[in-house]
From TrEMBL:
InterPro entries: Adhesion/Biosynth-related, EMI_domain, FAS1_dom_sf, FAS1_domain. Residues 1-22 are annotated as: Disordered. Residues 152-285, 289-420, 500-632 form the FAS1 domain. It comes from Scleropages formosus. This is Periostin-like. Keywords: Disulfide bond, Signal. Residues 10-20 have a biased composition (Pro residues). The lineage of its organism: Eukaryota, Metazoa, Chordata, Craniata, Vertebrata. GO terms for cellular component: extracellular matrix; extracellular space. It comes from the Eukaryota. Transmembrane segments: none annotated. GO terms for biological process: cell adhesion; extracellular matrix organization.
C-alpha cells in the first residue's frame, strides 16, 4: 500500500491550446484506448507528459483506481455498472464515452434506465426524454466528438466543483471541512447536489448554516466514510460507518442499477479524487439511530398501528436487526375500517398477525428505487405490487402513500392512508368477487351467511353470476336454499388439498366427492371441467370403479377414443337440476356425445337410464353435478374389443352391451366445446290463433327468434324448413333444454326445409297452466339467456 501525503497533490496544469498534431494524437489515443479497454494506460501516458511534475506515487494511485472504474470486465461488475454500460451502448453513435439517460419530463430527475423503462419511454408512468451526456469520469474536448478525455483528478474539495456540487463545496469551506478534504486520506463522500440542498426543510437548513462549526460540520461528516467505496463495493444491505459519531449509513443496491444511501439515490457515481471518491446524491441525509419499533412507538399518528403490533405480538420483531419495509397505516386509515371488522380482527391473534405481516416486506424498498411496478412477497406470504405514478408510490395500483422513506436502522417506513387487508384476514364471504356477486347476494338473502359461525372455517364453491338463470332465480326459496347449502363446505380446503375420491361435507349435511379426475386427465378433458359455461355432469363415484385393478384402469385409459366416448356420455351441454324437471315423465337429455340420456324425476329423486342418483343438484360455478354409482353407456353403441367388453360388463350391469368385432369408436375432436351457432328464423304464414309465448329454449342448434307459436291445429300453407329425423312429435313440453315425449304418432313425418330442431317450446292446452307459465317466464331468449342478478318472485293467480 502506498502512503500518501499532502505533498503528493499537484493542481492540474492550465491547458495550453493544442496544436493540430497534438489534438489528433490525443484523439487517436482516446479512441484507441477506449476501444481496447486501455483507458488506465492512456492516463499513464498523459500523466508522464506533464513533464515529471507528477510523482510516481500519484500515477500508481490513479492507475489502480481507474483500473477498477473503467474496466468492469476485469472485476465483477455491479448492477449500477451494468446499467451504465448499457447506457453507453445505446449512445454508441454519439461518440466515445457518451451515455444515454432518461429524464422525466417536467422534472430534473435523470436515470441510467433499465431496458423496460427505455423501451416504454417512461419512468413511473411519466413520459421520459432521452439525454446524451458524458459517462461518469469523462469529459468533452472542443472540436471532438463524444467525450474523449478523462476527467481531471483533483482532491475531494476540487472534485465537488467539477461535479457542480457547489453548495456542498461552499458549506465545506464555511464549516472548516475544506482543509480536511483537500489533504491526504482515502475518503468516500456522498455529496448532496445543489437541488438536494434546496429540497431540505428551510428551518433545518437555517439551523445548520447558523452553527457551521458544529451542526453543519457534523452533518457533512455524516455524509463521509473514512475509506474509498466505489459502486461495486456498495453491496445491497451494506451498513458502513460514517465519520460522525460512528453512526451507520445504510446502503441498498438494486437490480435496476439504482444505488441508495439512507434512501437517497446516487445520481452521479464513482468520480475519482486524489484522496478518495465522490458520489452525488439527490437529497441531504439525516442520521439514523432508531428501529422501526422505536419509530412506531413515538409517532402519535401511528398509535392504532402500535396497538395492532402489540396485540399481534409482532412489535418486538420490528425492533430486531433486519432489512424490512413497513407500510404503516395511520390512525385515519384504521378509522376507515368497519368497527365490527376491526373488533373481530383484534379478537383473533392469528388473523391479526396475518394482517400485520401483510404490511411488511423482508427487504428494504426505498421510493427512489421504484421506477415501475413490481411484485413483492410480504411476510404474510402473499404478494403486493409496489409501483409509482410520477412522484407518488402506489400499492396494488392505488395511490395511498402519505410520506415516504422514513429510514431506520433496520429498514424503512412508508406511511399509508389505507389498511391493506389480506385474504387470510377476511371472512370467507368477503372473498366473493364481482363475478360471483349474485351468489353472495343469495346466501345473504336466504340467511346462509349469517348462519356461518365466525370461529369456524368454511369453503365456498361460488358459481359465476351466469349460473343463476331464470329457472334458478324463480324456483321455490326452500329448494334454492338447499341447493346453495351444497355450495358451502364445512371445512377450509384449497385446490392443492383436493384428491380423487375425497369426501367433502356441506353445511346441508350432504357429501361432495372429488371424482372422475384421473380418467378426465387421461382423456385430455380437464379443460371441460374448468370451462365457463352451463353443464350437467352425471359423475361416477369411486363405488363405480370398485374392484378394478391398476391394469383395468390402464386398459380404460389406453384408447383415447373409447375413453372420450364413455366420459362425454356423462355430460350435457345445459344445466339440468331436479327442481327444473317435470316429475313422473321421462326427459330426454342430449349428451355432449350426441346420444340421449333418459332422466326421470320421481318423489324429489332422479333416475338416469334407470340408475338411481343418490346425490343431485350439487352446484358448481359452471353447472351442476349429479352423482351415480355406475358408469353410463349408450345402449345402441357396440364394443369392438373383447378385453374392453369384459371390463365394461363388470362396470355396467343395467344394459346388455353389444359386441361387434373390430368396431372402432369415431374420433371425437375437442371442438365440440365451442359449437358453431347459426341463426334460424321460422316463419308461419296465415292468421292463426295466437297464444302467449312463455319461453323459447336455445338448443342444438339455437333457435334465436320465433315470430309465432300456434295453439291448436292451424293450417300451414307455406313453410321454409325441413325437420328431419324422428317422426313428427305432435305434442311436447319443454324444460331447460330437455324434451319430454308424451305422444308419438307414427307414419310419414311432415317435412319442411331446415336443420333438425331437437328442442321445441310448446304450450299446454290447459289454460290455467298457460297463465301460470306465462306469469313465470316473460321474455324470449335470443342468442343466450339473459343473466339475472337478483331474485325475482311473482305471485299471481291464474286466470279462471
Amino acid at each position: 500500500m502506498v502512503k500518501h501525503s499532502a505533498s503528493l497533490y499537484l493542481p492540474p496544469p492550465q491547458p495550453s491550446p493544442p496544436s493540430p498534431k497534438s489534438t489528433s494524437a490525443a484523439l487517436f489515443k482516446s479512441d484507441f484506448a477506449a476501444k481496447k479497454g486501455w483507458v488506465p494506460f492512456l492516463l499513464l501516458i498523459e500523466c508522464v507528459s506533464l513533464g515529471g511534475r507528477v510523482r510516481m506515487e500519484l500515477l500508481v494511485v490513479s492507475l489502480s483506481v481507474l483500473l477498477t472504474l473503467t474496466t468492469p470486465d476485469w472485476v465483477d461488475a455491479s448492477a449500477y455498472d451494468k446499467i451504465v454500460s448499457h447506457s453507453r451502448i445505446r449512445a454508441k453513435d454519439k461518440g466515445p464515452n457518451v451515455c444515454a439517460l432518461q429524464q422525466v419530463m417536467g422534472t430534473k430527475k435523470k436515470y441510467f434506465s433499465t431496458c423496460r423503462n427505455w423501451y416504454h419511454g417512461s419512468i413511473c408512468g411519466k413520459k421520459a426524454t432521452v439525454l446524451y451526456e458524458c459517462c461518469p469520469g469523462y469529459m468533452k474536448l472542443d472540436g471532438m466528438p463524444g467525450c474523449p478525455a478523462v476527467a481531471p483528478i483533483d482532491h475531494i474539495y476540487g472534485t465537488l466543483g467539477l461535479l457542480k456540487a457547489t453548495t456542498t463545496q461552499q458549506y465545506a469551506d464555511m464549516s472548516k471541512l475544506k482543509k480536511e478534504i483537500e489533504g491526504s486520506g482515502s475518503y468516500t463522500m456522498f455529496a448532496p447536489s445543489n437541488e438536494a440542498w434546496d429540497l431540505l426543510d428551510r428551518v433545518v437548513r437555517n439551523a445548520l448554516v447558523s452553527n457551521v462549526n458544529i451542526e453543519l460540520y457534523n452533518a457533512l461528516h455524516y455524509h463521509m466514510v473514512n475509506r474509498r467505496l466505489v459502486t461495486k463495493d456498495l453491496k445491497n444491505g451494506l451498513k458502513v460507518t460514517s465519520m460522525y459519531n460512528d453512526l451507520g449509513l445504510h446502503i441498498n443496491h438494486y437490480s435496476n442499477g439504482v444505488v441508495t444511501v439512507n434512501c437517497a439515490r446516487i445520481i452521479h457515481a464513482n468520480q475519482v479524487a486524489t484522496n478518495g471518491v465522490v458520489h452525488i446524491i439527490d437529497r441531504v441525509i439525516s442520521s439514523v439511530s432508531s428501529t422501526i419499533k422505536d419509530a412506531i412507538e413515538v409517532n402519535d399518528d401511528l398509535s392504532s398501528l402500535n396497538a395492532v403490533a402489540v396485540t399481534s405480538g409482532l412489535l418486538e420483531k420490528l425492533g430486531e436487526p433486519g432489512h424490512f419495509t413497513l407500510f404503516a397505516p395511520t390512525n385515519d386509515a384504521f378509522k376507515k375500517v368497519d368497527r365490527d371488522v376491526l373488533e373481530r380482527l383484534m379478537d383473533n391473534k392469528v388473523v391479526l398477525q396475518a394482517l400485520m405481516n401483510f404490511h411488511i416486506l423482508n427487504s428494504v424498498q426505498c421510493s427512489e428505487a421504484i421506477m415501475a411496478g413490481s411484485s413483492y412477497e410480504t411476510l404474510e406470504g402473499h404478494n403486493i405490487e409496489i409501483g409509482c405514478d410520477g412522484e407518488s408510490l402506489t400499492i396494488n395500483g392505488v395511490k395511498m402513500v402519505l410520506k415516504k422513506d422514513i429510514v431506520t436502522t433496520n429498514g424503512v417506513i412508508h406511511l399509508i392512508d389505507q389498511v391493506l387487508m389480506p385474504d387470510s384476514a377476511k371472512q370467507v364471504v368477503e372473498l366473493i368477487g364481482k363475478s360471483q356477486s349474485t351468489f353472495g347476494d343469495m346466501i345473504s338473502e336466504l340467511g346462509l351467511a349469517a348462519a356461518m359461525r365466525p370461529e369456524l372455517e368454511y369453503t365456498l364453491l361460488a358459481p359465476f353470476n351466469g349460473a343463476f338463470t331464470d329457472e334458478v332465480m324463480t324456483m321455490d326459496e326452500r329448494l334454492l336454499k338447499v341447493i346453495l347449502e351444497n355450495h358451502i363446505l364445512k371445512m377450509k380446503v384449497t385446490l392443492d388439498q383436493l384428491y380423487d375420491g375425497q369426501m367433502l361435507e356441506t353445511i346441508g349435511g350432504k357429501f361432495l366427492r372429488v371424482v372422475f379426475l384421473s380418467l378426465m386427465e387421461a382423456a385430455e378433458l380437464t379443460d371441460l371441467l374448468r370451462k365457463e359455461g352451463s353443464y350437467t355432469l352425471f359423475a361416477p363415484t369411486d363405488d363405480a370403479f370398485e374392484g378394478l385393478s391398476d391394469e383395468d384402469i390402464a386398459l380404460l385409459k389406453s384408447d383415447l377414443g373409447t375413453l372420450r366416448t364413455i366420459l362425454l356420455y356423462h355430460f350435457s351441454n345445459r344445466t339440468f337440476i331436479n327442481g327444473g324437471l317435470e316429475g313422473g315423465v321421462t326427459n330426454l337429455l342430449k349428451s355432449i356425445l350426441g346420444k340421449n340420456l333418459q332422466v326421470l324425476s320421481v318423489n324429489n329423486s332422479i333416475l338416469v337410464n334407470s340408475i338411481n342418483v343418490p346425490d343431485n343438484d350439487l352446484m358448481a360455478s359452471n353447472g351442476v353435478i349429479h352423482t351415480i354409482k355406475t358408469l353410463l353407456y349408450p345402449g345402441d353403441l357396440p364394443v369392438g374389443r373383447e378385453d374392453l367388453l369384459m371390463l365394461l360388463k363388470r362396470l355396467i350391469r343395467y344394459i346388455q352391451i353389444k359386441y361387434v368385432a373390430g368396431y372402432t369408436y369415431q374420433e371425437i375432436p375437442l371442438t365440440f366445446i365451442m359449437p358453431e351457432i347459426k341463426k334460424v328464423t321460422r316463419v308461419i304464414e296465415g292468421e292463426p290463433t295466437i297464444a302467449k309465448v312463455t319461453r323459447v329454449i336455445e338448443g342444438e342448434p339455437s333457435i334465436t327468434k320465433v315470430t309465432r307459436v300456434i295453439e291448436g291445429e292451424p293450417s300451414i300453407t307455406k313453410v321454409r324448413r325441413v325437420i328431419e329425423g324422428e317422426p313428427n312429435i305432435i305434442k311436447m313440453t319443454s324444460g331447460t333444454g330437455y324434451t319430454k315425449v308424451t305422444r308419438v304418432i307414427h307414419g310419414e313425418p311432415h317435412i319442411i326445409e331446415g336443420p333438425d330442431f331437437s328442442k321445441i317450446a310448446s304450450i299446454s292446452e290447459n289454460p290455467d297452466l298457460i297463465k301460470a307459465e306465462s306469469e313465470r317466464i316473460t321474455h324470449i331468449i335470443q342468442g343466450g339467456m339473459k343473466r339475472k342478478t337478483r331474485l325475482v318472485r311473482r305471485h299471481k293467480k291464474p286466470r279462471q
